[in-house]
Amino acid sequence: MRMIRPLRNMLILGLSSLMSLQSFASEGTNKTWAQQLAQEKINPSEQSYCYTDSNGNAQGDNLDLRIRLASVSKLLTSLWAIEKLGVNYKYETKLYIKGDQLHIAGSYDPFLGNEKMFYLISQLNELGYEKFETITFDKNVLINPDVNYESDTYPTINANTMGKFVKNYFNTASWSKDSRDEYATFSNLAKIGKFRKSVNFEVKNVKMVEANPFLGDETAKVLTLSSPELYKYLKQMNIKSNNYVAETVFRQAGGITKFPEFLNDRFQLTDEQIRFYTGSGLPTVIDGSRKDNYATCSIMLNLLKELKNSIELQGKTVEDLVAVPGSDGGTFRNRIISSDLKNSFVAKTGTLMHTSTLAGVMSTQTGFSFFGIFNQSTDISGSKIVQNAMVKSIMSDLGGPKVFDYTVEGFHSYNNDVLKSFSEFSDFTSIEEGLH
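^ thats the sequence. predicted structure below, dont judge the formating
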């Protein structure tokens, strides 16, 4: 696993030294906050909002209140991932072929689903392979056919389930009508040459193995299927709020055991200040008790600043990683975003039964501002009204928006009129290069 710690030397500071968090009252934003909460009848004592002014000082209300993060957690999962792996990291699935046997060496690729597996079979057909007697695979092969769909439950991943998936993909004669239709959709809408119009494959035996049987065997042919760069995966994860991808990336980085160490080593933060139970922001149950990711608004301001710093040190911008409301769809598709705010901020939403959150980075006439709005209420629609109003109010307090240059980037375009059941897809694809 590639570490990029040398890039971080200039930023290994205590959290308190990253920015001044002295809180000042902002008459305009505080007035909007109070009025909106009253209008929506939301208890102000359980709500928090904050943002940084042009001097880096924090303003807002209840800055040190412990708040549930919900899917805003994915921003910190992104921070951890790009620091540990690097923004240009690629997941490389290796195929070792010898005679009538294939071994798949996985890479914990979080987007190893239908699109990528269909593509893999198509590419093998292109190379002349149509049948294997035996396919083996290792524990790093994580297949989730439904990776592109919303899911609140992490799927079962073990030798049995992965074996069934592999056997099903590589026996095309037994594909269901839905599988054939989905393959045809990917084939018809992909770039020319990415998919064959039809595929034919057969395998007899499939099993998980502890060791690669062909490792070091110079007579075995080795093919590599590379993913897009990590930041593109994370961008899609944040746009769609993909819980499976977030949790998979979180677990790959070390999960609930290593994340507190990262927060403590880098920012001197303790479990009393911030705690993660999942990488997605979904709650979990431990010993019969529900557990939610939590932090404070003031802590989030600092970590959002660090997210922006970290990705810029690696040659990218925060809009390369986080959704741009007004341009990117995803969780913002049903939000009413004022046209003058388009391409002027990036943000992540979060929604649970009793929580609605919004946090990100604004581009304003006085510079960049980091913000968070955390509503702990079952009135989700009312909370979103409050958040939309606060974004406008904060922008106004900082002199108005400063639009940045942003164009939605994709690998190919999907026609939503043709996709129908795939209407929630964007132009994102989990494949980029052929087998090589």
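Residues 380-397 form the longest helix (18 residues).
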